[in-house]
Each structure stands twice: as C-alpha cells, then as structure tokens.
Amino acid sequence: MSDARGLSATEWQDLYRRLEKPLYNFAFRYVWSAQDAEDVVHDAFLQIWERREHTLVATADRYIWVTALNRCRKLRRWARLKCFVQIEDSLHEVPAAENVETEAAHREEEVGLRAAIERLPERLRAVLLLAEFSDMSYEAIAQLLSIPAGTVASRRHLAVKQLREWIRSTDR
Amino acid sequence: MNEDRIMAQLAPPAGGWQRLLMRRDTPARDRLLGPSLAAAGTLAVVLLLAIPQTPDLHLPWNGGRLVGQPSEGVDLRVMDPGYATALPSDDPRVRFYWLQHRGTP
Fold first, then answer.
1. Would you give the distance in Å from CA A28 to the centre of its chain?
2. Does the distance separating the beta carbons of B16 and A132 come in below 8 Å?
3. A63 close to A55: Cβ distance less than 8 angstroms
4. What is the reported pLDDT for A50?
5. Is the CB of residue A91 less than 8 Å from the CB of residue A107?
6. Strands, E, within B1-105: which ranges?
7. What pTM was computed for the model?
8. Which chain A residues are within 8 Å of B16, Cβ to Cβ?
9. Facing residues of B86 across strands?
10. Is B16 in contact with A38 (CB distance < 8 Å)?
C-alpha cells in the first residue's frame, strides 16, 4: 500500500489518526489556545498534503513535527506582538470533574503548569514538549532540532527539573 | 521516553478530521480570502493611524460650518430651466430664494 515516492490519501489519514492527539497536546502547550492548537495541527497536515507527491512515508512524521513546531513558534511571536492573550480565555476544557472543587484544582494545576512552561527558555521548551508528546527518540529529536542527542537529554532533564521546582514553589 | 510523562493528555476538539477535510477541499483562493481581507483591514487601520492629522483644516464655503468655521456662502445656480427670485433676509449670512420651475404657474 505504501508508495515509496509519495503519500497516499489513506496514509495521510492514518498519519492524522495517529498524530492528531500528540500534535494537538504539543501545540496546545505552546500556544495555549484550543483553536490555535487545532489550526497548527491542520496547517501541518495541509502542508504535507500539498507536498504529498514529494513526501516519503518514512519521513512524514518528522516533517509534520517540524512544521508544527515552526508554526507554533510563529504564533508565539505574533502573540508576543499582540500581547492580549488572556489566561482565562485560553484554558483548555478539563474533563468533567466530580465536583467544583476538583475542577478548580484542575484549572489551578493547568495555570501553574502554563506559567512554568512559559518561564522556560525556548530551547528547553521545544525539547521538553517534543520529548513529552512526539514519541520520537532523543536521536530523532536531535536531528529535528539540529543539536546533538546528548544535548536533547540534558535539556529535557533540566527542563523537567525547573518545571517541577517552579510548580512546587507555587504550590507552597 | 514517555514513561515518565509529566503532563496530562488532552483530547483534541471533536470533529477535527471533518474540519481538516473541509479546509483541504476549500480552494486555496477562498482559504486565503479571509486572512487577506483581515490583513488589508489591519493595514488600512495602521495607515489611518500613521497619517499625521492636519491641525488646521480649511474647507471651502459652507463646508467650513462642519468644523465650526464661518461659512463663506455659495452662489445659487439653477441647473434646471427655471427662475430663482432672491427674497429679503434680516441676516446677511442667510439668503432666501424662491424657486420656480419654468412652465409652472
């Protein structure tokens, strides 16, 4: 079924089914808006669709992740220019909680997580989110970001450490 | 690598695949129309804000009243064949005319 020289409609659909959720989660933690996160995912898939004849199935995943990453970075630059992103508006709907207190706790957690991720420098954020959601190996992430694999591991370690410290300090 | 995942997995909004197909099947020209219009609107607003405001506005004749300046008045021109008879006015800034179409009694 797999065409070595291009991506078929079925392969494109399979790719979407497999990557929609991780890509959405990745994009959401970058742009903090459900609508923007979906747009990022769709933009990446439309781009690969338009270039499907020249896309190898084997490299399609990587292409999608790079496109999504670039799109997220571009949206963040725009958001910085606009400066009117409001935390309350961009909160993702959390799964139905048992009671109001649980829901409030979920929201608080998400606000804390967002604040912590936002404090990370971009080089750590990209590694952290790719490692968290992409299922790619450190080597693959390293190739994607054009950095050594060892750097991916150390950046992820540092990002997780900082994130946990910041979240712990705001919990106190 | 994800065995020690630190973030919750969120569910993407339902109907994403259908929306993607709709976007894919919308001609590129239509897809670009919305953003293009938005960009043009933004550019127009920026240009309007960037153009320096003229502090001293001079308008000819009766347009001056719109900005609080005295009107210099304008002469009456009857475009349609007919008659215009000047009537007396107590205020020199106000003129009255009696207009009569040619042929009417």
1. 6
2. no
3. yes
4. 92
5. yes
6. 82-87, 96-101
7. 0.65
8. 20, 24, 38, 41-42
9. B97
10. yes
pLDDT tens column, B18-40: 999 999 998 776 667 777 888 88
CB contact under 8 A, A132 and B23: no
Query: How confident is the model at residue A110, as a pLDDT?
Result: 78
For all residues of chain B together, what is the average pLDDT? 73
State both tokens at A133.
């959601």
Q: Is the pLDDT of residue A144 over 50?
A: yes
Cβ neighbours, 10 Å, residue A118: 13
CB contact under 8 A, B13 and A34: yes
Q: Which of A122, A11, A1 is nearest to A64 (CA)?
A: A11
Give the ipTM of the model, two decimals please: 0.79
Q: Which of residues 6-35 of B touch A (CB under 8 A)?
A: 6-7, 9-13, 16-17, 19-20, 23-24
Q: DSSP character for B61?
A: G
**What SS3 string covers chain A?**
CCCCCCCCHHHHHHHHHHHHHHHHHHHHHHHCCHHHHHHHHHHHHHHHHHCHHHCCHHHHHHHHHHHHHHHHHHHHHHHHHHCCCCHHHHCCCCCCCCCHHHHHHHHHHHHHHHHHHHHCCHHHHHHHHHHHHCCCCHHHHHHHHCCCHHHHHHHHHHHHHHHHHHHHHHHC
A102 inside 8 A of chain B by CB: no
